[in-house]
Amino acid sequence: xxxxxxxxxxxxxxxxxxxxxxxxxxxxxxxxxxxxxxxxxxxxxxxxxxxxxxxxxxxxxxxxxxxxxxxxxxxxxxxxxxxxxxxxxxxxxxxxxxxxxxxxxxxxxxxxxxxxxxxxxxxxxxxxxxxxxxx
Length: 135
Prior knowledge:
This is Flagellar secretion chaperone FliS. With about 140 residues, the protein is mainly α.
């Protein structure tokens, strides 16, 4: 219990000190983790756990939806994708469908990996010599 308390403090500190970009990455990782756990729970025929894990993924996706800024055109694309994922999660939860969860897992990994790449690109400083190039 004491070790768990230390881990919880570490996690809380990581969340409190994270940038918005890092928080988004944490949410993607959390959704992936819960999706994997839901798949395992289906394999173990633990339907209540399956439901709880899928609900956690749904909560994360809802958080993504409500934090989208509609002034950017790309937000519409993300909203469409998140709504699709949410529909599939509902279907997976109702039917306890492992294949649907694996589809969702693939989409979440793709979104997470794209986000990680965008974070890397955002950290690359612009080379002053390329800013003045004209063709």
